[in-house]
Amino acid sequence: MLINLNLDLRLKYTAVLAAAAFWTAAGMTPALAADADVVIDNFAFVPATVTIAAGEAVTWTNHDDTPHQVLASDKSFRSPGLDTGEHYRLVFAKPGTYGYYCSLHPYMVGTVIVH
Ligand SMILES: [Cu+2]
């Protein structure tokens, strides 16, 4: 019984390793693995800079009692106004460095680096 359980666990572990090796060999990562989260807290984007791979996403969540809005420096993306607890998720398809700020409080700035 115990031996069977051990074998079962070992097979599952091997399957996980095989899947990881596959993703690595394919030069890919599972879509959700490296997505970045940015918290809007006390009138700041935290962390101010996040780095992701092309095709991954950044999710901003407003923890302040004040609305905020994420706006790209070059206006290429714009969130809706985010009230307390609301999220904005954006997939970045192309490599580049994307500066952004809060349209309501322009001193709030952040950067998304996409490899
Ligand atoms: Cu703001």
Structure description:
The structure is a single chain. The protein has 2 domains: 1-30; 36-114, Immunoglobulin-like. It has one helix at 2-25; strands at residues 36-40, 45-46, 49-52, 57-62, 70-72, 87-91, 96-102, 109-114. The strands form 2 sheets. The chain has a 4-stranded mixed beta sheet, with no helix packed on it. It has a 4-stranded mixed beta sheet with strand order 3-8-7-5, with no helix packed on it. Helix content is 21%, strand content 33%. The longest helix has 24 residues, at 2-25. Mean pLDDT is 83; it is low at 13-24. The chain is globular and about 35 Å long. It has 1 helix and 8 strands, in the order H-E-E-E-E-E-E-E-E. The protein is α/β, with parallel strands linked by helices. The site of copper (II) ion has 5 residues, from loops.
What are its keywords?
33% strand; 8 strands; four-stranded mixed β-sheet; Immunoglobulin-like; 2 domains; alpha/beta; 1 helix; binds copper (II) ion; 115 residues
CATH architect. name of the largest domain: Sandwich
Provide the residue-averaged pLDDT: 83
Distance between the termini: 49 Å
Q: Please indicate the count of domains.
A: 2
Strand content: 25-35%
Bound molecules: copper (II) ion
CATH topology of the largest domain: Immunoglobulin-like
- In terms of per-residue confidence, which ranges show pLDDT below 50 for 5 or more consecutive residues? 13-24
At the fourth level of CATH, the homologous superfamily of the largest domain is Cupredoxins -  blue copper proteins
